[in-house]
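Friendly challenge for the regulars: who can give me the structure tokens for this chain first? No prize, just bragging rights.
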Amino acid sequence: MSAADRFAAPEGIAARIHRHFRVALEERGYRADPQQQAAIEHLANWLEHFLHGHHGWFRKPTAGAYLWGDVGRGKSFVMDAFFAAAPLVGKRRVHFHAFLDELQARMQEFNGQPDPLSKAARCIAEETRLLCFDEFHIHDIGDAVLLGPTLQMLVELEVGLVCTSNYSPSALCDDPLYGERLRPVVELIEKRFEVLALDNGEDYRLRLTPLDNWGSYLWPTPNDSLSLVKKRLGLGSQSRFDQVLEVNHHPLRVRAQDDGRAWFEFDELFEQPHSAADYLWLIEHYPQMAVSGLGPLLDYPEDVGKRFLNFIDIAYDRRLQLQLYASVPLDQMASGGSLLDFGRTLSRLRQMKQVQLKEG
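First reply, four minutes later:
Bragging rights claimed.
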């Protein structure tokens, strides 16, 4: 990939990104707060220096940027504006779960060869100059083990990395199950990345209108749930009921399926040990989905709750048309929730249309 292919543009890179950010704000009727403005300025200047190699003789160039802050602070908006304006061919924006799924698939291509992870990382680096991750977080020990060496290799291969997260780098290690596994990742971010905080200010998700709804949260589930879900999900006469799917080489029971539509029970999706790769597979095959049987999260073991949170992350990012059928209103479903990342999940669920059904 030539330098011209990477950043050919009639204006400077930083100026282009600033202009695009202003236009994106004007289109939405927003005004950037000081932290958001500082973040886009840092990203714009970083990319210009990163691509043109403006760094000290003895100092390694900054490898990327890490934006962290509370839910709804506009991190994704800032990164999306930056990504859209970045004048490169070899750029990618990807949800973190999807990237890890891709990484493992690429490693399988080198199965039986020495160091498949290194080979997979090199393949990614050959195709990508700028890689943007949204919602950087880890809730799986296997992902934690892969993450450190993968990021280190990508940095060494001069792939620029931009991440958004709800957590400061040091807070990534808070989970006692695999915090130590993430310590090399934290050290890499603190040493080689620009760390930018958007940790207070307006929650921009409170401005969202019904046009931003990506699904429905319905409660309480009536006794005749079959009739209700069939109607609302649009299941037709050719629908198939109570079948078993083969998802990534293991079974998963589906209540009903039709062309691009599927209905699952909560316990089947989340009380069984399904992975992010399984949820990605389902969303790819069924862009309209209903999930019934959701109760207060406090009633479930922590691993079940984490799977549900991961699913909502992926579903939201992929804009799944989702119907959630619950036994209680959303605020009651969330009460007492102490799960890591639950604030982000609750914010996303509140963007759904809230539908109170008649009991019976």
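The chain is about 45% helix and 20% strand. The chain has a mean pLDDT of 85. Your move, everyone else.
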